[in-house]
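[agent] plan:
  1. take the single chain provided in the ticket
  2. run structure prediction with default settings
  3. attach structure tokens to the ticket
  4. add a short note for the reviewer (M.T.)
[agent] executing step 1
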Amino acid sequence: MGFGTGGSPDHRAMEGQIEDELLALVTQLTNEINWYMRERGLTRADLATRMGVSPGRVSQILSGGENLTLRTLAALSTALDARFGIELSALKGGDTFTSD
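[agent] step 2 finished; step 3 output follows
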């Protein structure tokens, strides 16, 4: 999912940080969706029906292997009768671009 290849060591380091942050975001998002569904007794098949897609498509989305669009996120939140919260905060000392 890189934005380019080659370049300076600084550029390659930044690309690595971007990839780490992307992985952390996808992991956090899919974990949150799975938790939300579990708390409400919803299966992937239930979510697929609510979204009007196949269960295979829901598996693709929740596997974390793709870059989700805002449209897909909106479809998920609508199907779950929920809303995603977004927060942007400065990194604190010791924070990294990796998943928790």
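[agent] step 4 note for reviewer: The radius of gyration is 16 Å.
[agent] ticket updated
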